[in-house]
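Hi team, as promised in this morning's meeting, here are the two structures we talked about. I've kept the exact order from the run log so nobody has to guess. The first one is mostly here for context; it's the second one we should focus on when we meet again. Sequence first, then the predicted C-alpha cells.
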Amino acid sequence: MTSEPLLSEQLRAQLQSLLRTKQQLLIEPTKQRPAASQLLSHIGGDPYFEVGETWPINPDTGQPLELIFQLVNPDGTMPWPFEAQVVQFYQNYHWGELPFDDGDPRDYRLKVYPRLRPELMAQVLRPAELPTIGFSHIRTQAVPSLPDVDELPDLAPELQMLCEQLRPKNWRKAYRQAVTELSGEPDLGSWVGGYAQWLQGAYPTGTFWLQFDSTEDFAWGDSGLLYFCVDGSDPATISFQLQSC
C-alpha cells in the first residue's frame, strides 16, 4: 500500500506540471478620469474606435449597449489564444437583463481589434441614454493558476484518483489543500488565461480564455461572473456564459 507522504509528493509533482500563469485583472477606481482612455484597459472610459465606426446598439430598438470592459494588450502580456490588441465587451446591462449567449448579438457585442492603429483612431462620444459611471483602470498581475476542483475529473482524472487515495471520504478537500500550498487559496475574481474558477460548476464551451467578476459598476445577480471561452484560435468563435447566485 502506498504511503501517505509518497502520495502527497506525487500529488504535488503532478500539480506542478499543471501550473499555468494567469493575468489577474485588478480593477482600480480613480477619482480623476484620464483625458483620453482609448488606449487603456478600463471600465467607464472612452472605448477605442476607428474612423467610420459608431457606438454598438441593439439594432431592433436602437438602444445603445453598455461597455462592460475594454482590455488593451499591445505587448502580449495577457495570454490570449488569438491575435488581438484590443477586446471590448458591450451588453444591455442597463436594462437589467442577463447576458445569456444564445447566438443572437442584439443584446451584446464582443469587438476585437487585431492591431492598434492610432492613425485611424476616432473619438465616439458615449450616448446620452447611458447612465454616467465612474472610471476604473484595469491593470494586470501575473499569478499562478491550477484547475478548479469541478474540472479535475475532465482535465486530470489521475489527480482525482490520487486525492481519493489520500482522502477516500473527501478527495476534494485533499485537492484544495494541495492547491493552496502551491498557488494560494482558490478564489473568484477577474483574469485572463490560466484556469477558470467556476461559481456553479464547470461548463466550458471551448478553451477557457477570460472570466470577469461583478464590480461596483456591474453586478449580475448577488455574485455573478462572465466566463469566456474560444474554440481554437479564431476570435469569431468566442462564447460566453453567466453564472450567478
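And here is the second protein, the one for discussion:
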Amino acid sequence: MPYQVRLALPAAGATFGDATDADVCSMAGALRTTLARLDTLLDDPPYNVIVRSAPVGVSNFHWYVDVLPRLTVRAGFEIATDLAVNIVDPETAAAELRSADPGGCGERS
C-alpha cells in the first residue's frame, strides 16, 4: 500500500503480550512519530494500525506494528488477482516521510 510503514524493534520477542514496558514505550514513541509524519505529509489520512504477534505455538517470530494508510481503492486488477498495486515508489515514500517534520517531537499540535 502507498506509504505503508512497518515498525519493529530489534530485540522484540515473539508476542506482543510478552513485551516489556520499555518495548511498548519505544514502539508507542515510534508509532506517534510515524502517525504525525503521515498527518503532516498526507493531511491526516484514514489509516489502520495492526499489531502482528506470533501465532500460538510459534516462537521464531518478532512482533511488529503495521500502519496502513487508506489512500486507494481496490479496483478490477486487485480484485481479480488478489494482488495489491502500490502507486507510490517505496523509496520515494520513505524519503518523503523522513523529511516530513511534524514538529513537537512527533506529537500533534
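Starting points for discussion:
The two ends are 27 Å apart (CA to CA).
The longest strand covers residues 47-52.
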